[in-house]
Design brief:
The structure is a homodimer of 260-residue chains.
Chain A: E1 3-11, H1 28-40, E2 47-48, E3 57-67, H2 74-83, E4 89-97, E5 107-118, E6 131-133, H3 139-147, E7 151-154, E8 169-179, H4 183-186, E9 188-195, H5 202-214, H6 222-229, E10 244-251
Parallel strand pairs in A: 3-10, 5-6
Antiparallel strand pairs in A: 1-3, 1-4, 2-3, 5-9, 5-10, 7-8, 8-9
Chain lengths: 260, 260
């Protein structure tokens, strides 16, 4: 009997060449498939809700996979896979899903978190997980600019080249700048963006644009202008990968994989 | 004219074979000396306040080094060295020191921090910096046990083999269990120990012993017994290196290198 499972996965993407299997490269998908093979003997395809790029992390990536023949519990599967994974990848939960559950096709939204550290000097303990800004930023201006990203509209100004999508219209439900309680000492900021879907590099392009505003190079209203023109060359440079975390993936009512 | 500098250094020791130069291995001392050579042309010996083991980190390691001939400012030296260091090592400050300043000989005390995470499941983002305990611990019992470590006494029960010191008497000025505000969700604990000097592996042996108490295998009073007997075989196993941070080094009044 075929059983479909939903896996929730967290990983530190620093030392991986992204999610998707590539010959001769360490990838998250390849690492998971190999751990399943070693621990259960099954050759399965692990379908992620989306491909994260090299260096990008996940707190709650969701993947679906089908076993032609697995009779033990989801918990037994979780333990088996985790026993063969490196310290940098962990399966947080495994759940029985509807047989036709598909992690990409059924996703109705995602939330990303992008972590920043405003700090003149390097920090050996944060460089894997934060983009370091060497100069002070105007946080109030960034908060204003972030609010302008929210809405149902064409986001082609925030889409990096190389992707071909039917439409570049998306609904950004939330975009906020989160200032850490200890911001004055740590310089920790985060930008969280939630949408029904994302264009290629969209979060990193939004973050790069908000940082331009933070640096005072552009006023918050500039974000409206950039969006209206639908021209990628206007927006800020893409923020680097190490600050980005896929935080949560949302599904149709009726089946929601457990989050981290 | 010979000038002596005091360097304060922070590093993520995960990918290093410890502080001390060893042929064919990446070490912190070797990395610093090579960065100084590349950026200034000077061959100098960087003397650390103590050798940290493989996988051990530092927030405020202090080192001394002498330049036969350096006419620029300490800040210029700091920038030069940092320009040639990897992301995992950073010189936090460089100061002019008395000519005869010596980072080992002049040290009168140190403070270490040991980080723990009480969590059933692996955490891909903390495994480099915390010892994970898979079972709950009795934090109140650990706090009681930690207080018993404080004092001026023989600590040979907490000294790992391989070291030859004149005396195993040390003065532990402080030993405390720090419970994170968000302990209930993160499971983050830290143990900080300050003393006039440390025996080999002393902090890791103290932490291993406090965790035995936390697990309820021994009562807090057991620490007194272990110390009184001066027998290494009685104490708990040494905690693993990745939780340990050299936090601060103290010097004679008159010259104190800037801390992080």
């Amino acid at each position: 009997m075929t059983r479909t499972f939903a896996l929730t996965i967290a990983y530190d993407g620093t030392d991986f060449a992204g999610w998707q299997v590539q010959p001769g490269q360490e990838t998250i998908q390849g690492t998971l498939q190999s751990a399943i093979k070693k621990s259960t003997g099954h050759d399965v395809n692990v379908t992620g809700s989306g491909r994260t790029d090299a260096g990008v992390h996940a707190l709650g990536q969701v993947a679906s996979c089908r076993f032609a023949n697995w009779t033990a519990s989801p918990l037994a599967l979780l333990k088996a896979i985790n026993s063969r994974l490196p310290e940098t990848v962990v399966v947080v939960s495994v759940q029985d899903a509807p047989t036709d559950f598909h992690a990409i096709r059924d996703a109705i939204g995602k939330r990303y978190r992008y972590q920043i550290q405003v700090r003149h000097q390097r920090d050996p303990f944060e460089h894997r997980y934060r983009w370091r800004l060497r100069r002070d930023v105007d946080v109030a201006a960034m908060i204003k600019a972030a609010a302008k990203v929210i809405g149902h509209r064409d986001f082609s100004s925030f889409e990096s080249a190389g992707a071909a999508r039917k439409t570049s219209v998306r609904h950004v439900r939330d975009c906020q700048v989160i200032v850490a309680d200890d911001y004055r000492t740590t310089g920790h900021l985060a930008i969280e963006v939630e949408a029904n879907g994302f264009l290629y590099n969209m979060v990193r392009n939004i973050v790069g644009t908000l940082v331009e505003v933070g640096y005072g190079k552009q006023p918050p209203e500039w974000v409206d202008h950039v969006l209206d023109r639908q021209d990628r060359t206007l927006a800020g440079q893409a923020a680097p990968p190490q600050g980005l975390f896929l935080k949560e993936v949302y599904y149709q009512p009726g089946f929601q994989p457990q989050s981290c």
